[in-house]
Amino acid sequence: MPMTDALLSSVEQLFSLATLVSMMIGVMAGVVAAAIPGFTITMAIVLTLPVTFTMPPLQGVATMLAVYVGGGSGGLISAALLGIPGTPSAVATTFDAYPMARKGEPGRALALGIWASFFGALISAVVLIIAAPPLAMIAVKLGPWEYFSLILFAVTVVASLVGKSILKGLMMSLLGLFVATVGQDPMMGVPRFTFGVDVLAAGIPFLVVLIGIFAVSQLASEVENPTALQRGESLVSGKLHFRPLAVMREVLSRPGNLLRSSMLGVVIGAVPGAGGSIANLIAYDQAKRASKTPERFGTGIADGVVASESGNSATAGGGLIPMIALGIPGSAVDAVLMAALMVQGVSVGPRLIMDSADLVYGMFLAMFLAAGMVLAFCLISMRWFLRITEIPKSIIVPVVLVCCAVGALALNNRITDLYLLIGVGLVGYLLAKLDYPLAPLVLGVILGPIAETNLRRALMADEDWTLFFTRPISAGLLILAVLSVVFTVRRLLQQRKIART
Amino acid sequence: MNDATDTASPPGREASSERGKALANVIFNAVLAALFVGLFVQAGDLPSSMWEPLGAGSFPRLILGALVIFNLAIVVQSAMALRQTDQETSVGAGRWFAQRRLAFATLAAFCVYALLMPWLGFALASLLFLLAVQVILGARRGRRLLIACLVAAVFGLGLYALFSHVFLISLPPGRLW
C-alpha cells in the first residue's frame, strides 16, 4: 500500500542519526531563544532557515518544526521566573506562573508549563493528522476562483486581526502582494519592476525580507530604551525543586481545561494571522470563565498556567493545517516553513499530501518527536534556565544581528542581499514605529504569486469574471472576507467610542 | 522638578507624539501614494498576452490601484487626526530620534559592517561589529568589556568556522588579503 510505504519511508528518514541530532539542536535552540526576552520564536525560525538549505527536505523541515515546538515552551521560562514574557505567546503565562514562582514554587510553575505545553502540542498534532488529509481532499477540488477568493479571505482576516488600524493592515497586505510581483511574472516570465537591476531580476529575495522584517527591525526596537538594557537580576531566588511525575498527574487531573485550551489553540492557530500570541490570552480567559473559582486566577494557580501554555503550544499543529492542506500559511512562522519547503523545490499546495506523502507524514511524526524532545530537554535542563534569562541584551542583539547577516548571505552569497537586508530592516523598524503591523506584509509576499496565478487561470478558463461571485464556495469566501472587514471596523469604532468617553 | 510639571508633562508628551505620528503618516503615505501612481503608469507598458485576458501588468495594476486608494485614505485619516491634536505642541521629531539613538546607532553600525564586509571578510568584520555594538550598548569597562571581547571573538570567528566548515555555506573571505 502506498500509504504505508510513505509512512515507512518517512520513519526511515526521520529516525536517521543526522535528523535526530539536528532536531535535538533545533529543540534546544528554540527553547533557549524563546526564553531570552526580546528574541521571538519567529526570529529563531527565520534564522534556522538558511542552515537547513543543505539538508534533505524532511530533515530541514523537521529541524524547523523542532525549533517551533521548542519555542512554544521556551517563552514560559522567563514568564515564570522573571515575570516577563519571553515571547508574546507567553503573556498569559506570567499571570499565574510568576505569582506561583514568587510564592516559593518556581519548580512547580515550570514543570506545570512544560507538561501543559507537551500535552498541548500532542493534542494539536493529533488534530492536524485527523483534519489535514480530508481538508486537502476538498481543497484539490477547488477551482482557481475559489482559491483566489480563499486568499482574499486570508488576507483580510490577517489584516483585521493584527494591529490597531484595518486600513494599515490591508495596506501592508497589499504592499506584500506588490513586493511579490517584482521579478518575473509567474505565467509568462516577463520581467516586472526590475528597472534593469540584476539583483531584482529573480524577484526580491523572500528570505531577506523575512529576516529584515522579523529580526533586524525587531532587534532595533529592543535596544531603544537604554535603562531597560540591563537585565540579569533574577527576581526569583532559591532552589528549584521538581517533582515531574507528581506535576504530570496534576496537569492530567485537569482534562477539561487541557482539552479546551488545546482545541482553542488549534482553531486559533488554523486561522490565518492569529497565533500563539492570541491563543494564550483567549485560552486563559476561557479557563477563567469556566472555573468555579475564577477569583483565584492571577494568584498563582495551576489552572492558569495549564490554560495559557497548552493553548499557545497547540497553535503549532493548528497553523500547519491550512499550510499542509491548502498551501496557505496560518501565521508568519508557517510562512517561513512554507518558504523552506519551496527553497527545497517542494511545491506547497493541496496536492502536497498526495505528491509528497512521505514528507507530510514525516512532518506529522516530527511534531510528536519534537514535543517529546522538548519535554525531555526542559525537564533535564530546568536548573540552568535562570542563567539563560540573565544574558543581557547588549550581548544578544549584536550576536543575533550577525546571525541575520549570515542568513541573508547564505542563499546566494551576494553582498547586495546584505544591503537589501539593512534597507528592509530600517523600513520595517520605521513602519513598526508608525503602528503598521508587519505580519500581513510577509503573508502578502508569500500569497502574492498564488493569488495572481489563480486569478489569471480563472480568467483564462472563462473570461466571465462574475463567476467569482456566482460559484457558491467562492461567493461564500468573499462574503466572509467582507464580513471580517466589517466586523473589525465596527469593533474598532466601538473601542474608539469607549476610549473617548 | 515640582509636582505640577511632573503631572503635566506625560499627557503633553503623548499629544506631541500623536501629532508627530499623524504628521509622519501624512507625509509617508502621500509619498507612497505618489510612488505607486508612478509604478501604476509604468505597469501599463508591460506586455499583454494573446493567450489570456490578463497580461503581465494587470495584477500589479490591480494591487497598485488599491494601494493608491488605501494610502490616500490613510492620508485623509491622519490629516483629520492632525487637525484634532493641539496645534501648539511641537512635533518633536528631534526628540523622537534622540530617544531612539541607541537603535539608530545599532542600525548605523550594521550598515558600516555591511560596507566593510567585502573588504575585511566576514570573520573580522563580524568581530569588530560585535565589539562595537556591545560597547555602544553599554559594555564600557571592566568585566563587561572583557566579556564583550570574548563574545566578539567566539561568535565572530566561531560562526565563520561553523558555516564554512559544518554547513558548507561560504561567507565573504575578504578582498584585502
UniProtKB/TrEMBL annotation, chain B:
Q: Give the keywords, sorted.
A: Membrane, Transmembrane, Transmembrane helix
The transmembrane segments are 22-41, 62-82, 102-133, 145-171
Domain DUF1468 span(s) in chain numbering:
28-172
Q: Does the keyword Acyltransferase apply?
A: no
Which positions are tagged coiled coil? none
Q: What Pfam families does its record include?
A: TctB
Which protein are we looking at?
Answer: Tripartite tricarboxylate transporter TctB family protein
